[in-house]
């Protein structure tokens, strides 16, 4: 099953050096989840060949503009393009006020149902579940209420060994039971042991998105053992004081977080506009945690 994330924006605060503000597109089993929606996200979707119409769920971490200024444009375009499919938006409650004001004064009545789910930054909770995954919030420590998100893939059904079943002429109608782990008794009394005809599915994967935060460890428990951890790394560690003042993280701290929480891979992003090239940030983090990559725009990472 596909479980991958494409980076649409990795800049903090302002768009600079061809870097756009935060946005990521998660593809889980061909369902699309947009995580944050900085200014220019629509253009980025087009640039990297994604259809906005495929997005059914949007998650906004907090109400600093670099994480949601692209949303009104995106929602409007969906309306203008004739979307009728519902969309669900998970975001701080005040965002609905902001959107309603914008729709009111542009006299826009959306053609499609927009379900707004307010999220609070008080305590972590599961906010979404479908057959593929669950999504839970991470309470981050930023200047305004801010949540990250954990995307936990669900355990899939067992995989049937098709060649063997075909060879023994086992009818297709038995496959669903085998996938669920059931031993079968055929009409002639033959018993098929599940373990002989199926293999276990892959271990479910975990992706955490930690946007703007002071790296204070308060949320580490919620991001244990990620297959891929995205963590903001706004500054180099020489700017630690500034990072602390602005409630952000350094590349070194992001790498230490990956180690402390047992992540397999680390993506760093939300780069300050002071960095024209990102290599120093990558080097700083990689020296501590080898499996670090830059969340560079247009890159897709398998989780
Ligand atoms: Zn930000
Ligand atoms: Zn912020």
Describe the structure using short key phrases:
7-stranded mixed β-sheet, 303 residues, 9 helices, 2 domains, binds zinc ion, 27% strand, alpha/beta
Report what the structure shows:
GO terms for molecular function: 3'-tRNA processing endoribonuclease activity; zinc ion binding. Zinc phosphodiesterase, which displays some tRNA 3'-processing endonuclease activity. Probably involved in tRNA maturation, by removing a 3'-trailer from precursor tRNA. It catalyses: Endonucleolytic cleavage of RNA, removing extra 3' nucleotides from tRNA precursor, generating 3' termini of tRNAs. A 3'-hydroxy group is left at the tRNA terminus and a 5'-phosphoryl group is left at the trailer molecule. It comes from Pedobacter steynii. With 303 residues, the chain is α/β, with parallel strands linked by helices. The chain folds into two domains: 3-156 and 202-302, 4-Layer Sandwich (Metallo-beta-lactamase, Chain A); 159-199, no CATH class. Helices cover 23% and strands 27% of the residues. One zinc ion (ZN) binds next to loops.
């Amino acid at each position: 099953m596909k479980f991958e994330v494409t980076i649409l924006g990795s800049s903090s605060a302002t768009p600079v050096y061809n870097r756009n503000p935060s946005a990521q597109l998660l593809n889980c089993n061909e369902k699309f989840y947009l995580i944050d929606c900085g200014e220019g996200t629509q253009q980025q979707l087009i640039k990297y060949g994604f259809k906005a119409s495929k997005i059914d769920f949007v998650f906004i971490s907090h109400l600093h503009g670099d994480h949601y200024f692209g949303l009104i444009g995106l929602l409007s375009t969906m309306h203008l393009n004739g979307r009728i499919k519902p969309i669900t938006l998970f975001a701080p409650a005040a965002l609905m006020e902001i959107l309603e004001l914008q729709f009111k004064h542009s006299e826009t009545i959306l053609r499609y149902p927009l379900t707004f789910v307010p999220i609070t930054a008080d305590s972590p909770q599961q906010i979404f579940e479908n057959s593929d995954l669950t999504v839970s919030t991470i309470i981050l420590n930023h200047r305004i209420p801010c949540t990250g998100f954990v995307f936990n893939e669900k355990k899939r059904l067992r995989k049937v060994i098709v060649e063997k079943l075909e060879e023994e002429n086992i009818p297709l109608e038995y496959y669903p039971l085998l996938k669920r782990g059931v031993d079968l008794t055929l009409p002639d009394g033959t018993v098929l042991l599940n373990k002989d005809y199926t293999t276990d599915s892959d271990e479910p994967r975990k992706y955490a998105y930690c946007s703007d935060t002071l790296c204070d460890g308060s949320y580490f428990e919620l991001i244990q053992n990620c297959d891929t951890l995205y963590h903001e790394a706004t500054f180099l560690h020489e700017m630690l004081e500034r990072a602390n003042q602005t409630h952000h993280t350094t590349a070194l701290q992001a790498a230490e977080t990956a180690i402390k929480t047992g992540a397999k891979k680390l993506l760093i992003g939300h780069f300050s506009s002071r960095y024209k090239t990102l290599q120093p940030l990558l080097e700083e983090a990689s020296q501590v945690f080898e499996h670090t990559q830059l969340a560079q725009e247009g890159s897709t990472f398998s989780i």
